[in-house]
Amino acid sequence: MGVSRISKHASGTGTGTGRTTAGGRGRGIGSGSAQAAGRLRDLRGPSRAGDHATSERLPHTRPAVIPEWDRHTAPARVTLVKQPSSAAKRWRDTSTGSPPPPPGHARIRELSAVSISRTATKPLSELIGVRPSDAADETSRRKRDRPRLVFTVNQALVVILLLIAALGVSLTMLVQQSMSLAALSAGGTTRIAGNEAERDDTSSSVTGNESENGQNQLQTDSSTDSDVAEDDANGTPAYPNTSDKSESEQNANATTTPEPDDGRIDLNTATSEQLQTINGIGPVTAERILEHRKAIGRFVSVDQLLDVKGIGSKTLEKIRDQVKVG
Amino acid sequence: MDWMLREQGSRDWRLLPVALTMWAASLAAHLVFDWWSAAAESGAADMVGGVDAVGISAGEAAVHMGAVPVSEDAGAVIASVTSQVMLAAVAVLLLMALGIALRMGIRWSGTVAVCLAVACIGGITAIASDAAAWRDPAAVWARSQGSHTQVRATVTAPVVASDQREYDCQADVRLNGIIMGTDATDGAFVRNGAAVGANVATYADDSSESSETMLHSKAKVRVYAEERYCTKLNRGAVYRLTGTLEQAEYGRMPLWLLVEGEEPVIRVKGPPWHRAVVEHMQQSFFHVTERLPDQGRVLVPGLTLGVLGQDYVSVTTDSTTGTASEPAGEESWTASVNETYANTLEDRFRRSGIMHLMAVSGGHFVLLADMVRRLCMRFLLGRKPSAALIAFAYVLLALLMFPGDSVTRALVMGLLGAAAYGIGRRTQSLSALSWTVIGVLIFDPDMSQSYGFALSSAAVLGIVLFAGILGRTLVKLLPETIAQMTAMTMAAQMFTLPIQILMEPELPLLSVPANLLVSPFVGFATVTGLMALACAWCVPWLAGMFAWIASLGTLVMERVAMWLGGGEWTALPWPDGVTGALLMLLAECGLAALAVLTARFVRYRLMRDMVLGMDATADSEPGEDRSPGERFGSARRVRMSLWWQETRKLFLPAGDRT
Questions:
Q1: Pairing label, strands A265-266, A77-79
Q2: pLDDT tier at B363, thresholds 50, 70, 90
Q3: What pTM was estimated for this model as a whole?
Q4: Which of A128, A181, A184, B409 could in theory staple to B456 by disulfide, Cβ–Cβ 3.0 to 4.6 A?
Q5: Which residue from B minimizes the CA distance to A293?
Q6: What is the CA radius of gyration of chain A?
């Protein structure tokens, strides 16, 4: 962040001084730049003490555009070598002296001086040449050896935003799961077919079922247990089935018969001969059905017949009303 | 300021404190929730007046959980309100202080801000997931009525040998729901006798819709079953299971289902095709490894898949008849590895400190990624397609392995690395690890309590932080390859030792030599094991050859483990628990400080000698404490030659001095 501030600032001052000619205007800008340089120094912390004094004394100087890695080596101000031709559009003159101009430099400058526009374009000749600062001095090319440990403001903000987005996604998934559970559980009660008539009075007439709940509860049967089970059913609407369960159990007790007499063949108890009486199932298919039944344990729904080799959807539709799963 | 000038963008450690804070916050939140839920349960027990713990109902707990203060005491209400207001005020003040610090440019304020945010996020996600699991109907059921239940569940992890004595195998499942309205659920499941043929409890059922209700649930349950039911549990398939659902006494799964009854395992839906394919491949691989010698049978699957040979339970894949599968099942069971030998081997591995080889870690993934990347470079593929291929290979490998938390860590970190490679950035291991930890803990907060994940991450952290430095120091003392391997071992052990002490309070003293002896063989054994896995389903004889080569590598491991793990001095008893872990960290810091001081002292003495020696010849000032540069030549060679000269001078003084 500091680097960007310096460069923005410096580019402002750089273009300002770039336009100066030698003379008072330069001095005016120079002093303005001195203030700027002073502000820069304040931002970056204490530096050499002598710089403040020198800044006022040296004319025709401009603040050094100091890249951060060179802060300790380059002085705060740079002495420009006065050139006969005016437009001193130097770019980032950070050395202790200006670079030695290559031969023919003056001619190039004359030729190009005409076409150089106001916005500082820098001829390539400025970039060539060996500078004293290129010497193999340890301090001029600082080694980077420390890991990066510090967040700047913008980086911190970006990371926090990313994390909040991730948190949102995670919580949404979690809430969706719980909501779907609650919705399905509440809707699941409506799937009870037939027998349970008093199911819809769950919330209102639980007191009536209290004694039955108490009797039909499982191991730890105690009246207090059924009381709090009732509280449970009242307080948390996600579990309406705890009281339904006992009702369904009673009804199952009352109406339970292994084989309702509608003439359909029970897939789980049929023998091969019984299966072969079905129109559309032959001996081979009957054997396959029996094998499949052994493999999976028992049939849960008639649609599992689709898993049997030899029975496709058409066959299934044909025989659906002749079989059932019981 | 100087630090900022010397910052290196290629070592980005900014997220390390953030990841550590997140983990700590997640753990703390889990602890707080456990404490609170225990208090809620015990509070409910007290209020119901002496009913034993099994009979604690969900209702009371629900009331407590509603977070509505039911206390009648006005003082308590005022106190709670005041404390909430104070907490809010403190939070606001903290945020203001943070904002001011950020504006003022105090250096650490950015990191502190992110750490605070991440702590809140870690706490929120942990408590949310814990609360959701606690309120799950199955958990409520298990707490209130822990009894005979019929559930519908999907198997999420392959069947392995059980850690309980009474049952033969275990599998992790995720419930779809508890089936109500059946006799099984009502506890008297043999009421409708009618045991006809392949019998089961009957219930009034229509052909097209089931009239039973299912209490939907998403709980994670560990199923314990006997051997004849184990073989039916395919991963990814949906089953209807009957048994006792209760709260877990130990382990990471919150609930247990102890399968019992008649016909307790009924398959409702088959596994998806990719799971079935993977299971078939794994089964063929185990058929191949069964022909290896004992150590190969135990260790080659461990090295390749992450499950030791004796822990594997082979399941029958689809559509074999029931009668035919049982004799085969019995065969594979009776021909299994000698249990004593297998247990001894596992124990010796643990004591000698090379047990980490038997868990799938990043090593597998790195090997595979390397091969894929070289292949892509050979065919001059661009960066993006090659990164996509690497990611695909990672996912494939993760599917083939037995699931585990270290696999998750390696997969996510590998995918991040592949993504970085794809967009052309250099991989930063520590940054990738931190993002892995943060991401995984946000989406699955239970992982903060997982030892596998912690060990895996700690090993990577140690390697990233210390392997370079240790390597540079050890290279001056040892030959290069040995120095690098030792450095990697020591660096990985730095942070895993305290975690291992939490699991088992003893310190493996010989782990560094054991790892050194074993590490040349790990690479090729892993690669050949993976190749055996890849071709076992189609070319068993080739897979047999690969497996045999892998078993040669594991033979070395077995010998090393038996030798080094068998002595009395291999494991040092250590205080257990958190104190032991902290003590271990302190001991490591002490040793590191000792090593650093010794190095400095040695360097000081050497410099002094060198300067004194140079004094006669050079113009340099004496007392220059640090001359730049490194010592020339192999230190060993220099030392040996100096020693030789000194010895000659010692024994032949007259000859030298003439």
A1: unpaired
A2: confident
A3: 0.66
A4: B409
A5: B198
A6: 45
In chain B, what residues touch A171 (CB-CB under 8 Å)? 124-125, 128
Q: Is A163's CB within 8 Å of B117's CB? A: yes
Residues A251, A292: one domain?
no
pLDDT above 90: residue B531: yes
Chain A hits for B66, Cβ within 8 Å: 235
Cα separation, B571 vs B565, whole angstroms = 8
pLDDT band of residue A138 (cuts 50, 70, 90) is low
Closest residue of chain B to A143, computed from CA coordinates = B6
Q: CATH code at B250?
A: 2.40.50.140
Are residues B263 and B169 part of one domain? yes
The residue among A161, A163, A98 whose CA lies nearest residue A128 is A98
Q: Do B13 and A149 touch (CB under 8 A)?
A: yes
CA distance B141 to B245: 8
> What pLDDT score was predicted for residue A196?
42
Amino acid in position B188: A
Name every chain B residue with its beta carbon within 8 A of the beta carbon of A292: 319
Q: Do A193 and B204 touch (CB under 8 A)?
A: yes
Contact B218 A181 (CB under 8 A): yes
Assigned domain for A85 exists: yes
| A305 touches A290 (CB < 8 A) | no
Residue A300 structural domain:
265-324
Say what the ipTM of the complex is.
0.78
Q: Are residues B125 and B178 in the same domain?
A: no
Q: Do B14 and A185 touch (CB under 8 A)?
A: no
Same domain, B541 and B562: yes
B215/A239 Cβ within 8 A: yes
B66 in A contact zone (CB under 8 Å) = yes
User: What count of other Cβ atoms lies within 10 Å of the Cβ of residue B68?
Assistant: 8
Look at A96-105, B539-548, B588-597 and tell me which has the smallest mean pLDDT.
Answer: A96-105
- Would the pLDDT of B606 be above 50? yes
Region A131-151 average pLDDT: 73
* Residue in A closest to B240 by C-alpha: A300
- Cβ-based contacts of B13 with chain A (< 8 Å): 147-149
Among candidate residues B235, B254, B271, the one where a domain is terminated: B271
Residues B461 and B434: their CA atoms lie apart, in Å, by 9
Q: Which DSSP helix (H) or strand (E) runs through A147?
A: strand A146-148
Would you tell me the crossing angle of helices B273-289 and B540-564 to the nearest 10 degrees? 60
Residue B54 pLDDT class (50, 70, 90 cuts)? very low
